[in-house]
Amino acid sequence: MAHDIQITFDCADPAALADFWALALGYRLQDPPAGFDSWDQALDALGVPPERRNDRSAVVDPDGAGPRLFFQRVPEGKLAKNRVHLDVRAAPGLTGDERMAALEAAAERLVAHGATRIDRHEPAPPLAGGHLVMTDPEGNEFCLD
Asked: Which of 39, 47, 62, 125 qualifies as a FRET site for 94, CA 20 to 30 Å off?
């Protein structure tokens, strides 16, 4: 039996990183608990003080197919290269110049929202289609693939 998974990011600013990844993946902020019209209303009811309201955030796939992404504030910054990273499938079914142009367009859009472009790997048929290495606004590596 397969298990559902959640991908968790340790970070400094959960709300900002959740916004970035929602944009990057076409996700949306997770709805507040049932019975509440907003997160502020839910957090008020739970007694969460204003200074703790950016301790956590989560985004979800609007179609329910992809994993939930959870963002939690931690005191330490990122110190080393990720051992696991996300590959964002930004050019499915495309090859060659058309593929790389689609990846470049996706990279440009994400850079405008705080990502950093690190490297470009050219297509090397038959096995490598080419990809771009990026980092999110807090320095977590990911690939546009």
From this structure: 62
Cα angle: 128, vertex 130, 135; to 5 degrees: 125
For residue 140, count CB atoms less than 10 angstroms from its CB and return exposed for 0-12, middle for 13-18, buried for 19 or more.
buried
Bin 45: left if φ > 0, else alpha if -120 < ψ < 50, else beta.
Answer: alpha
For 119, residues 6+ apart whose C-beta sits below 8 A from its C-beta are 132, 133
SS3 label, residue 58: strand
pTM: 0.90
Question: Are 69 and 18 in contact, with CB atoms under 8 Å apart?
Answer: yes
> How far, in Å, CA of 74 to CA of 55, rounded?
8
Q: How far apart are CA 92 and CA 99, in angstroms?
A: 8
